[in-house]
Structure formats: structure tokens, C-alpha cells
């Protein structure tokens, strides 16, 4: 039955499939088998609940829309028309700004950072924040966690935890390594916890009167927000819209991007560093973490010419860097796509390699190539990914603020609210837990 197509469960909380539209072209199966879950696992258990980490790469490649993200934009559209005294807040991930234009008829690689706040305000948003702020806060927590583990020589290598597809992959296939996963929440989850606590207090509003919407390049985030352990309020993130859904919303409301003026994101979750911006590209999280871990370990910033870890950028499957910090050699690796994580983990388990810090992103190229991004054809895929990635690195290069720990809004939120990285409150609001999900390998229902 599944010879040429990827099965999608009715219980999948990120992706849906309309079997009537499926032309059995096999593209979804190929991407899932080659890049994500091994073919054996799909074929050996045809009657079991399909295994899925919600990354949506199958939906991105599907030429007929038979597979697509679970649409939430119509619900958000309705809320924006009838807010019922609620405040509607949008936060937008960095990878969205360099891809949204493609679905609005603009050139590949155009950065819409300055248009997005006005676009969302014209749709009815009350506040529009930048997830780059959440990315900076993630690095503060994750880099401090890394420094502590290094000093105590425990739970090394530290794996990044910002990609929910990767987190679920590790929970299913390698639960014995969950201790190595950073406990820091993803930038989106961090931003949402801050909005429903700190910002709600600032605007003197009950968190239940806030509708918190995040625009992400990712379908897996639709599943991530259902993880109870991420919530510090009843529901920290109310809706995730993919970049494609935002484009649909804009088009259905007949908003022309050419008629929209420039504006900035709103304070106090407005400012992000260049390090936060490059989170959207494979290698970006590791690079951002190294810039701040260096500061935490030495009390000095890397020199301007040392900020770019170019060996961690680009399309290679596994990228590495060695960094000397105070005489200690730190070895880091970046897995560009889950297939490469599998290769690296197998070597780690056989003790053939050693790393101190490992970044894993499910999508090849990083979030700029997420399952919820505008579709590209096979022919232009590599070119499109490169253009999006270059747009993020160019933005970082042009910025004066290129270090998360130098972000004035980040310094302020620690001074005013969180105290210091990994403080008791920071651990309560910005960190999470994981679960052994190897039971899914038996074909049990998804949570
Ligand atoms: Fe989502 Fe980014 Fe992970 Fe892809 S790499 S699944 S877009 S978080």
C-alpha cells in the first residue's frame, strides 16, 4: 500500500493527507526515506501507526497539495476579524523573512524584515515581535548550560534542542542520549513563555486574553506546541502558521506587499542580534552558541575577524570546527539534516569520534528549508536554499549587534525579570524535559 507514498496518520498534529489528491509520484516517499526515516521502518510495519517526526518535508515536495500542513490560518483569520477584546500577538521566525516573498511573487532571497510588521498590523495584529529575540535568549541559556557541563565534564556532547523534529527523533530512536540534549526550550517556545508571563504583566493583561500566534518555517512546530511540558501558562503558543500559510492569509486578504510601508518590530521583544538571525541556517545555532560561550568562559568577546565560523556554514552533511578557549580545545559538529545526525550518532556510540557540542537540524540547509517554507522545484532547490541562507548571513554581517549577550533587550530582561542565565526563574520558564518515546517504534499511537 505504501510503495510510493508516505502514510500520514489521522492523529498527526502537524500534517494532513488527502488521499484523493495523491498521484503516487513517489516524491514524498523519496524525501522521507532518503533524508528522514529509513525505508525499512516504513515498510516493515505497514499496518502500524505511521512513524513521523512532523518535519513536513513530504508536504514541501508534494506537487498536488495532497500532503500539506494542518491549516490554522483560517482560524487566525477569523480571530483577527473578531478579536473579542483579546490582544493578538504575532512573533515571526528569522527564516520566514527571507522566504515569504517567494510566495508573494517576489525574487528569491529578498529579505522582508521591514515589511512583515506592517503586513501583520494591516491584518489586525496588535503587536508584532521578532523571534530573533527568543533566539538570543535561547543562546544565553544554552551557552551557559554548555559552559557548566564543560566545567563539570558531564553530559558532553551537548546536543542542540531548538528543532522539534530532531528532539522527537532522538526521543524515539536514541532515548539513551536524551541526557545529552540541551534542556533549553526552542526560541519559539521561549518567546511564547516570555509573552504569556513577562509581557502579559507589562501590558497588565491576563495571559488568557492574549492570542499568541507564531509564524514559522516549520510544520513540526505545530506539534511542538502541544507538548505540555513546554507550557508555563495554559497554552503558551496558541497557533503556529507556516510561511506558506501567512502568504495564503495575505493573498486572501488582498494585501499587496508593494503597498505596504516599512516599519520595525515592537518592543520589548524587538531586538535580535546577528547571531540570532543566523539561527535559520544550518550551522547558525552552533556559531551563535560559540560566540557567547567564548564570552562566558573568558569574559572577553571574540575579535570581529573571529566571529564567523565559516567551516560550520554551507551544504556539507557534517561540518566541524575546533576552537581554542582559554587553552581548552572545544570540538563542535553540525549535522545538516537528520540523515547526517544518524551517521554522527553511530560514530559517537562506537566512540570513533568525540565532540563537545553538536547542532542538529532536521531540514537540510536548516530552517530556511523547513517543511512550511514556500515550495521550490527540484531543479531550483539548491539555488533557493543558498539565496535564503545568504540573505541571513548578509544581515548578520551588516549588523553592529552580532552577539546575543550584547543585545540590550536581553540584558534588560535579565536585570528586570530573569536575574541571570540558568537562574531558578530562567530554569522554570525557559527549560524543559524530554521523554523516552521508543514505544512509537512498536507502532503505538502518537501522543
Ligand atoms: Fe523545523 Fe527548522 Fe527543524 Fe526543519 S530544521 S524541522 S524547519 S526547526
Could you explain how this protein is built, in words?
This protein has about 450 residues and is of the alpha/beta class. Among the domains are: about 55 residues, Alpha-Beta Plaits (2-Layer Sandwich); about 130 residues, Rossmann fold (3-Layer(aba) Sandwich), CATH 3.40.50. About 40% of the residues lie in helices and about 10% in strands. It has 18 helices and ten strands. Strands 4-3-6-7 form a four-stranded parallel β-sheet, with helices on both faces. A four-stranded mixed β-sheet has the order 5-10-9-8. Strand 6, helix 11 and strand 7 form a beta-alpha-beta unit. Helix 8 packs across helix 10 and helix 8 packs across helix 14. The radius of gyration is 21 Å and the shape is globular. Iron/sulfur cluster binds next to loops.
Cα Rg: 21 Å
Order of helices and strands: EHHHEHEHHHEHEHHEHEHHHEEHEHHH
Ends distance: 25 Å
Strand percentage, roughly?
5-15%
How do the strands of the widest beta sheet line up side by side?
Answer: 4-3-6-7
Question: Based on CA inertia axes, which overall geometry fits?
Answer: globular
The bound ligands are:
iron/sulfur cluster
CATH topology of the domain at 73-132 and 188-259: Rossmann fold
Q: What is the CATH C level class of the domain at 73-132 and 188-259, in words?
A: Alpha Beta
Low-pLDDT segments: none
**So, CATH architecture of the domain at 73-132 and 188-259?**
3-Layer(aba) Sandwich
Count of beta strands:
10
Count of DSSP-assigned helices? 18
Tell me about the largest β-sheet: 4 strands, parallel
Q: For the residues shown, what is the average pLDDT? A: 93
User: Given the helix and strand composition, which structural class is it?
Assistant: alpha/beta
Helix content: 25-40%
Amino acid at each position: 500500500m505504501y510503495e510510493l507514498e508516505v502514510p500520514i496518520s489521522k492523529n498527526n498534529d502537524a500534517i494532513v493527507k488527502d488521499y484523493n489528491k495523491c498521484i503516487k509520484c513517489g516524491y514524498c516517499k523519496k524525501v522521507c526515506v532518503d533524508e528522514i526515516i529509513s525505508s525499512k521502518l516504513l515498510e516493515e510495519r505497514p499496518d502500524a501507526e505511521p512513524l513521523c517526526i512532523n518535519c513536513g518535508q513530504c508536504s514541501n515536495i508534494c506537487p498536488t497539495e495532497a500532503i500539506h500542513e494542518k491549516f490554522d490560518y483560517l482560524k487566525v483569520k477569523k480571530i483577527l476579524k473578531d478579536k473579542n477584546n483579546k490582544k493578538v500577538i504575532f512573533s515571526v521566525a528569522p527564516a520566514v523573512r527571507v522566504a515569504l516573498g517567494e510566495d508573494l511573487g517576489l525574487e528569491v532571497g529578498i529579505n522582508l524584515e521591514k515589511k512583515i510588521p506592517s503586513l501583520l498590523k494591516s491584518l489586525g495584529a496588535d503587536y508584532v515581535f521578532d523571534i530573533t529575540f527568543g533566539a538570543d535568549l535561547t543562546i544565553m541559556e544554552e551557552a551557559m548550560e554548555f559552559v557548566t557541563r564543560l566545567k563539570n565534564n558531564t553530559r558532553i556532547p551537548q546536543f542542540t534542542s531548538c528543532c522539534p523534529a530532531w528532539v522527537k527523533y532522538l526521543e524515539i530512536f536514541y532515548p539513551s542520549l536524551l541526557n545529552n540534549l540541551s534542556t533549553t526550550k526552542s526560541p519559539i517556545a521561549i518567546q511564547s513563555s516570555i509573552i504569556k508571563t513577562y509581557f502579559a504583566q507589562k501590558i497588565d493583561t491576563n495571559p488568557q486574553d492574549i492570542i499568541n500566534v507564531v509564524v514559522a518555517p516549520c510544520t513540526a512546530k505545530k506539534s511542538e506546541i502541544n507538548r505540555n511540558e513546554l507550557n508555563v501558562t495554559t497554552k503558551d503558543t496558541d497557533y503556529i502558521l507556516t510561511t506558506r500559510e501567512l502568504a495564503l492569509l495575505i493573498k486572501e486578504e488582498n494585501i499587496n506587499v508593494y503597498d505596504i510601508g516599512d516599519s520595525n518590530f515592537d518592543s520589548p521583544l524587538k531586538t535580535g542580534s546577528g547571531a540570532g538571525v543566523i539561527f535559520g541556517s544550518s550551522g547558525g545555532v552552533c556559531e551563535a552558541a560559540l560566540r557567547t560561550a567564548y564570552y562566558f568562559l573568558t569574559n572577553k568577546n571574540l575579535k570581529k575577524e573571529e566571529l564567523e565560523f565559516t567551516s560550520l556554514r554551507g551544504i556539507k552533511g557534517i561540518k566541524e570546527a575546533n576552537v581554542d578557549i582559554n587553552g581548552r580545545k572545544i570540538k563542535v559538529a553540525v549535522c545538516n539534516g537528520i540523515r547526517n545526525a544518524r551517521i554522527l550518532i553511530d560514530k559517537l556510540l562506537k566512540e570513533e569520534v568525540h565532540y563537545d557540542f553538536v547542532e542538529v537540524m532536521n531540514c537540510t540547509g536548516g530552517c530556511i528549508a523547513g517543511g512550511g517554507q514556500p515550495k521550490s522545484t527540484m531543479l531550483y532547490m539548491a539555488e533557493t536554499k543558498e539565496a535564503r541562507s545568504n540573505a541571513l548571513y548578509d544581515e548578520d554581517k551588516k549588523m553592529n549587534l552580532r552577539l546575543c549577550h550584547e543585545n540590550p533587550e536581553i540584558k534588560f530582561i535579565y536585570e528586570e525579570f530573569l536575574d541571570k542565565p540558568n537562574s531558578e526563574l530562567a530554569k522554570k520558564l525557559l527549560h524543559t524535559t524530554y521523554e523516552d518515546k521508543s514505544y512509537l517504534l512498536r507502532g503505538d499511537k502518537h501522543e
